[in-house]
């Protein structure tokens, strides 16, 4: 996803309309809420921790780009789950200017690439190394792709990165776009239940990993960042991986020193988020409910953070 290279006045105006006027940090602490379930969980987890410190919390719906302008001007205070691969170069420029403070990583380990069920390793010796796919493409073949293997890729309107990679490294597979995220997951679960061959593009954190056992194809280690340029140099490094940052407004630490300590300590792993996403997206439960339930069962994890933040 590509965005404008500058924080344009129109963007700032949009953020002001969406998120409210003002540059001073004041109660309540305003936390960004983006459009996917995992981030909702991170946001409400952070809010619950701030409430443990006695702060009031406000959850503010904000887009990936407008939230940066709002944090830079101080009308939004905290974003616990900023994915660095969906904000273009606006984010690093705002950080470099000192308008946004990066506190550190949330603890999530984002991953994107090709997955397969463990039983496929017997049919394709050499996995998880990608080189094995050259020799056992037929193990992944379907009637409409034979003798090439079948690779389920993202829906067509999500881009063509998997297809581009197949062409680039001349892999004997036919990319087949999934109709939707739901259709892809239904096919994965059906194939695993019947122990049928499947190779599919996927990402995590995601609820499917809380209930389905899969392995990831492994790629060459890139010399630097794995991107289009490195692929063109002949580096079969797979796909660029994002990082997930915790970011705050520049005055957050002075306005909320105890909350700043909490931000520094707050940590959330893939395993935890995957399970909570499953409860929300598949079992129809409320985000606040599943976060509260997890916190009630795991006080040994976060209570030390509260104690340290109050010191």
Automatic annotation (TrEMBL):
Residues 1-26 form the signal peptide. The keyword Signal applies. This is Glycine betaine-binding protein OpuAC. It comes from the Bacteria. Coiled coil: none annotated. Pfam families: OpuAC (PF04069). Residues 27-295 form the ABC-type glycine betaine transport system substrate-binding domain. It comes from Ruegeria denitrificans. The keyword Signal applies. One of its GO terms (molecular function) is transmembrane transporter activity. GO terms for cellular component: ATP-binding cassette (ABC) transporter complex. Keywords: Signal.
